[in-house]
Amino acid sequence: MKKLSGQIKINTAVFISGTGSNLYNLIKFSLLKKSPIKICLVISSNSKAKGLNFAKKFKIKRKTFRFYKKDEKILINYLLKNKIEFICLAGFMKILSKYFINKFKGKIINIHPSLLPKYKGLNTHYKVLKNKEKITGCTVHHVNFKLDSGKIILQKKVRIFENDTPITLKKRVLKQEHVTYPIAIKKLFSSLQKKS
Ligand code: GRF
Questions:
Q1: What is the pLDDT of residues 104-142, one digit of tens each?
Q2: Residues enclosing ligand 1, CB less than 6 A?
Q3: SS3 state at 154
Q4: Strand, helix or coil at 12?
Q5: Residue of the nearest CA to atom 1 in ligand 1?
Q6: 150 φ, ψ (degrees, to nearest 5)
Q7: Which atom of ligand 1 is least distant from the CA of 18?
Q8: Which residues of the chain have pLDDT under 50?
Q9: Which end of the chain is more exposed for a tag (fewer CB within 10 A), N or C?
């Protein structure tokens, strides 16, 4: 990632599709003095996403975009108009186009509920249990052109218990996602500061 502008907090958009527990967690984090990000915008791919309520509650600008290819330029212009410099994907279920990723090159990160490069894509907890793994976890990574394949920023391991189901595991991993995402953001920006 190139050096971001000299402002104290980086104007950030969070992209969601569903519940938004990571969004809620990031909003709380962003309000701390030590946070390098300011969440100015929440973009949802789904108008019914529960997570939009968190944006409303915290009076953050929110918008639904269908992520149709034809609307891509509208979204990019909207993000630029709102001076967005950094994008956090949080439970965002659409695949961003190469064109979009290029426009925000090095400025998009994601959280994934597995220890990447293992278990990319969907149904991670089900696949992890099916393969009788003993350890799983979550990963915060940069977004590149390949699904769940960008450079890893931070990972956190989670133990799997014998009686785990995809639901119990999801709950435990999600708890660690909430711990890991803010730490990863701090780590990313402190390493950028050192470089600049
Ligand atoms: C999280 O497990 C995230 O890693 C995955 O989808 C889930 C979204 O949860 N991509 P939430 O919407 O943040 O509650």
A1: 999 999 999 999 999 999 999 999 999 999 999 999 999
A2: 18-22, 51, 90-91, 111-113, 174, 177
A3: strand
A4: strand
A5: 91
A6: -70, 170
A7: 12
A8: 1-3
A9: C
